Structure formats: C-alpha cells, structure tokens
Amino acid sequence: MLFPIPALHDNYIWVYGRENLPVIVIDIPETKPLFDFLAQHQLTVEALLLTHKHDDHVGGVAAFKQAYPQLPVFGPAETADKGATRIVDQGEIRTAHYRIQVIPCGGHTAQHVSFVIDGHLFCGDTLFSAGCGRVFSGDYAQMFASLQRLKALPDETLLCPGHEYTLSNLAFAATLAHNQTAVRRYQEQVKLWRAANQPSVPTTLGFEKTINPFLQAATAAEFTALRKAKDNF
User: Fold this and answer.
1) Of 22, 28, 39, 152, whose CB has the highest number of CB atoms within 10 Å?
2) Is 172 exposed, middle or buried (0-12, 13-18, 19+ CB in 10 A)?
3) Which residues pair with 163 in a beta bridge?
4) How would you list the strands of the sheet with 99-104, edge to edge?
5) CA separation for the pair 197, 177 (Å, rounded)
6) What is each CA distance from 21 to 4, 92, 110, in whole angstroms?
7) How far apart are CA 172 and CA 131, in angstroms?
8) Is-contact 57 11, C-beta < 8 A?
9) What is the DSSP letter of 68?
10) pLDDT tens for residues 184-214?
11) pTM of the shown model
12) Among 31, 27, 1, which residue's Cα sits nearest to residue 98?
C-alpha cells in the first residue's frame, strides 16, 4: 500500500505498508485525514517518520503521539522539540518489519532528511515532481549536494514528495529551453489528473531526470541560478 493523503492546502501525508503488515506514516501536518484513513482501512501503524521541522509537516505530531504514545517517531535533530523520539541523520532504521534508509538532505532546512523504504523515496520538501524545495535554513551548495544524493538512487525509485506542486513547477520548467516538448506534454497530463482530483505523485526518479531542471543542473552554481530564478518566477 502506498497512499498520499491530502492535508492542509497542498500537503501530502504518506502512508506506506506491505500487504497485511502495519504501515509507516511520513510527516503529519494534521491528524484528522490520517486518523480517518487509518480507521477506514483498519490499519495499524509501526512508526512515524519526520523529514524536517516545518509546521506543515509536523503540526499533527503532538495529537498523533496522544493517540499512539508507544510508537517511535524518527526524525532529524531539528524535530526533537516537534515530537521526534529517535533522532536520525543518516544510515538505516530497522523496525519490526521494515528497513529504512536515511539520507541527509539539508538545504530546505539544515538538517532535513529523506527516507527510502522498499524503493519508495519520501523526500519531504527536498525534491518535488519537476521542482525542488526553496532554500531556507540550509544553503544552496548543501541543497545541490542533497539532490545529487537523491539523483544517484535507481531510476525506478518512486518519488513521494510532501506537496502537490507539480503544475506550478512545470510552469517554470516550460520557460527553460531544454526538453520543452516533454515538459509541455506532461503539463497536459497533470492538468487532467488534477481536474479529476487525482495526485500527480508518485512519479519515478528516472522520469524526473527528463523533466526536472534541478536534477539536470550540472554544478552548484547552475543549480543556484535556477533556484533563485524559480524563487522570483
């Protein structure tokens, strides 16, 4: 099971689990849609993962912990005061049923992390379909290095970002000279999905390499120029 639960304005709460096993929850901006989903599908939860400290990813953690006081909450050091009980920055997490790779992804925030479970990349606000996160408490060189780590994952990796930003990202990508045909074709597909209230994610890392200008940037300087241009788009 892989399911993006819409939350707030354009966030996703991700729920992942193998058949007949408890699930892993990634980022909680609010609890009601999550609790409704878990109840509807009669799911149990094995762990909560937090990618970074921003409230639109951790706003529901306190209420979640009231409902699930014994569950581990994994996250980077910046989420310690947001409810994380197990601090992680890289390496591997082992729960009862899952092995979870932790990838340092500073840039959007300085201590942001991403998680890979069974070929699914949960990357918070580091990488989006056709885009990437703004640079806030990290820096541009750090963000570029983070994207290079994610880019090195297998092409079949499923990209599961924290927001539905695809159309706005494609609008920027369509202004760039490289690969406009593929970008504009994908724009039309995503418009159909969104008109039907369907998510545009997950997508594959291999496909993103063909449309995402931030994954195509060859140097930190090129990435920085692109990111600043997108900030002002």
Assistant:
1) 28
2) middle
3) 11
4) 91-94, 99-104, 113-117, 120-122, 158-160, 203-204
5) 30
6) 18, 20, 33
7) 9
8) yes
9) S
10) 999 999 999 999 999 999 999 999 999 999 9
11) 0.97
12) 1
